[in-house]
Amino acid sequence: MNSRPAIVHDQSLRALNTFGIEAKAAAYLRVATVDDLRAVRAAPELMALRRLVLGGGSNLLLTRDFDGLVLHMANLGVAVTGEDEDHLLVTAQAGENWHRFVQWTLDHGLPGLENLSLIPGSVGASPIQNIGAYGSEMADCFHSLRAFDMETGEMRLLARQDCTFGYRDSVFKHALRERAVIVDVTFALPKRWRPNLRYAELAAEIATRGIAMPSAKDISDAVIAIRTRKLPDPAKIGNAGSFFKNPVVSAAQRDALLAQHPALVSYLQAGGSYKLAAGWLIDQRGWRGRSIGAAGVHEKQALVLVNRGGASGGDVLELARQITDDVQRGFGVVLEPEPVVL
Ligand code: EPU
User: Which of 58, 198, 234, 257 has its CA 20 to 30 A from that of 153?
Assistant: First the structure.
């Protein structure tokens, strides 16, 4: 028999989203073990509710109270769980903080995730949008994950090919949304590691530090320094990292834009399309540092929207709408939000 889950009603989510926006959840459960999820399944009145699985709340914009059930993942633990000829396997529970997990791997002499240092959020959320930064993405080191299927009550093991990872995208944003609750994630970390300095700004930071043969820890330190310079600390000013995805356009559209705007920042993608730097587009339209009420555009990185204090989700969304319209007018490119908007 499952015990009754310890549901909290009308729980404030303010401290649980990095935008720091006030909204209430009709029902809230702190999930410490898979048994808590089994208990939810056994309660028809809870299964009738919409669900939101919450990790670090760092990729979420709340625009209203949530009338469903928030499952707040709080299961903890990290361990080396296996190896093959080329990799060590490390498994982290979903509720672990991502950055602390990355630091744990580095402290244990396990390189591979250093380029993803200081990304806010939890381990369990990392596959959902396939977090990425500084020339690397989570999928590069992903091995498998275990998820609890809220429909069948089974634990499912998903390998890389089951997750359809894309740019800030995966099956967990689509077919398995609200259905699969990620319980733990296993990473395959290389035994023969080589530094990844593909991202020019990172290579420049390492060069500035006079490091010829960087260790994984050197790279982590450099990434932390860059991020700290450019991105606002959610503990000090509410934000959800990049608010927009970098739009992908055809080579023809990129060439036409480049002819009109020679300084356009674009990156060639596999398959011949181009990713445009949305931050550059927004910046060119004069939005960097601007505000509408308490919702603003970060001074040092136009891709990041911030809560300057007391903004509602609607305020942030209105700012995002105006930016989207303006960038479309100026460049004919449609920006899409990166966070989940509720
Ligand atoms: N740029 C501007 N003005 C701005 C912002 C950017 O001109 O206000 C230009 C920069 O000078 C640079 C280019 O745009 O030439 C790209 O900027 P940056 O290197 O800061 O990266 P990004 O494309 O803006 C992406 C990710 C970030 C990630 C960085 C580093 C997305 C949506 N964002 O930003 O991810 O940290 O690359 O890899 O892909 C996040 O997802 O929350 C996030 C912070």
Answer: 58
Tell me the Ramachandran region of residue 307: left when phi exceeds 0, alpha when psi lies from -120 to 50, beta otherwise: beta
Strand partners, 83: 88
Ligand 1 pocket test: pick from 168, 224, 242 the residue with the most ligand atoms within 8 Å of its Cβ: 242
User: Of 168, 227, 254, 288, which is the active-site residue?
Assistant: 168
Rg of the chain in Å (alpha carbons) = 21
CA distances 5 to 24, 44, 65, 71, Å, are 19, 12, 22, 11
- Cβ 279 under 6 angstroms from ligand 1: yes
- pLDDT (tens digit, 0 to 9) for every residue of the chain, 342 residues total? 457 889 999 999 999 999 999 999 999 999 999 999 999 999 999 999 999 999 999 999 999 999 999 999 999 999 999 999 999 999 999 999 999 999 999 999 999 999 999 999 999 999 999 999 999 999 999 999 999 999 999 999 999 999 999 999 999 999 999 899 999 999 999 999 999 999 999 999 999 999 999 999 999 999 999 999 999 999 999 999 999 999 999 999 999 999 999 999 999 999 999 999 999 999 999 999 999 999 999 999 999 999 999 999 999 999 999 999 999 999 999 999 999 999
Distance 133 CA to ligand 1 centre (A): 9
